[in-house]
Specification:
There is one protein chain. It contains no helices and eleven strands. The two termini are 40 Å apart. The chain has one domain. The protein is 0% helix and 65% strand. It is mainly beta.
Amino acid sequence: MTNVTFREDVTVGKEEGNPVDTALTFAAGTPMELTYSFPFYRFSYTYDVLGKHEHATLGLGLVLQIRDASIRFKALDDTKGLFVSQNVGLVPALAIYSSYEFPFGLRLSADIAGSYASSSFFNGADFDFTGSILDASLRMGYTVKDELELFGNLRFFGGTAEGTSDAETSWSVSSYNYTKNNIAALTVSVGALWSM
């Protein structure tokens, strides 16, 4: 979320060919609150190809991610109300899960999901794009007692998007329909897991 003051008139929600006028214009000088969010829900399935191995697991499978790109425009003085643009889509990916537990209580595991696509076929649009996602988590745990495990976790989340849209919606289009976005985040966490 960020607060800005528009330097020029900004129209959002105008769609070419739509018989219903959903456009909303914020005048130059209007103090604004702009919010962009990208929540997602993920469903994963992996199959253990090692079968009945006592200390090791290697799962291969698929992920279906439901993402919702949401952009909110709100005038701080509430004169124009609120405009929200929602774009829900499906993102398929491949998944790998592996773990190995040593006899002395140390356990190593990795949980990875990712995809790369470079075709309009994947998003149902009539324009080409290139996109990728990668969510990788590496974990190390040590069993202190039967009920208590101490762990450390390193997680990387990143993605890219690049392409030129033929769409003429003005809520996100600037002078050009070309867009290029990159995100990369790394988190480190430690904790304890108590099993009852």
